Amino acid sequence: MQRMIAERLQDALLPFQHTLREHALAIDSDPRSISRVLDSGVPFHQFAGLPREFASDPLRVDGEALYLTSCEERVIATEILATGDASMVVGAPGASMSGVLIDALGSNRQRERFYSRVAERPIWTFFGLTEPNRGSDAASLETLVDGDGSGEGRLIGHKKFVGNAARAEIGVVFARFRPGPLGIGAVLVETDRRGFEATPLKTLGFRGVQLSEIQLDAVPVVGADLLGEHLTPSRRGILGAVQVFNALRPVVGALGLGIASAGLDYVRRERRSLRQDEAATMENFDARLQTVRALVRRAAALVDNGQADGAMSSAAKVLSVELASAVTQQMPRLVGGAIRWEHPYLDKLRRDVGALELMEGTSLIQRQNVATGYLQRGLGAARVAK
Ligand SMILES: Cc1cc2nc3c(=O)[nH]c(=O)nc-3n(C[C@H](O)[C@H](O)[C@H](O)COP(=O)(O)OP(=O)(O)OC[C@H]3O[C@@H](n4cnc5c(N)ncnc54)[C@H](O)[C@@H]3O)c2cc1C
User: Fold this and answer.
1) Cβ of 321 less than 6 Å from ligand 1
2) pLDDT, tens digit, 9 for 90 and up, residues 133-150
């Protein structure tokens, strides 16, 4: 009988989890040292989210090629790798969030333009939505394309907290083309265009992601850059951003599972024997881990079946961040000592949870999504949230 996908991925990816963990603190103290991880034998191109037609050397497990393009495969692989270092999973080269947007909205030509570049060698990509004045509220973006609405013009604006942008070669930028909610769209841009400048930000958590800010000083764009040029304006704008967030939120949930597992693993390595009350705490965390994992995988399955309405994904993200937060809060008590000095790895995990809380929307916003799901569709959507 064929082994379950989770078990097979666990066996295949475990060595890479260990490698990521070995490098986690070095990346945390200097995100530029990522080049050492790239040379460490971790096959990042196999986790890069390349569709079948662009993946010449996919991950092979028990002889079968796995492309990790379904949400279910992604959450399983993400949890395993994030147990090594969650920030490296998001900070690795590959198609990342922009790939998901291109899958949803891109024309064949845009897919070719983007993926052939990502497949050729390890490069970073970026997803430019969040702005310093408007946050990630896509409906009120200030960045604009000053043309006639056709997509041709100059891209003008300022993006902030965008992962990997300072080292990316290509990515997407959300901008306003016309007034009104249907006037938002996303353009595919190369970072060597005139007027594009991205610089890294100093951050406390998830430092492997190298959050950046982007100045867009009249970057030239043409009609062929507008994602979804073949779609109606209602299908290519904010809806595109919402689709990406709904599809990726279970993956963010898997990052939280990874951080929680990493914390629990660390405690077990440090403390060979536990007092009864401590053992009970660990058992309780293990049980919660199983429950939240089931929820994350359920949310991923809904995405793959085209049934995701966002509520389950939001619940998965909230509960996974809550678990990672609870584990990392308890860790100092379980290992003893001052974590910042004596257990820098735990200190890093704690800081990473803070970033995860913000990533793709805070818990408060996720709870609002669950509540909206409940009000619109009934208990099935809301039972999972506290
Ligand atoms: C590690 C990391 C990676 C990221 N990567 C990217 C990226 O690649 N691309 C990108 O574009 N962005 C990225 N971001 C930015 C991120 O998506 C946003 O910061 C996040 O979605 C939060 O949105 P916001 O900044 O608009 O905050 P808001 O949603 O405005 O929240 C700000 C505060 O206000 C509170 N709040 C919001 N609404 C309400 C309300 N109705 N009632 C009461 N309180 C409220 C929130 O709980 C929060 O405390 C990244 C962020 C992090 C931390």
Assistant:
1) no
2) 999 988 889 999 998 767
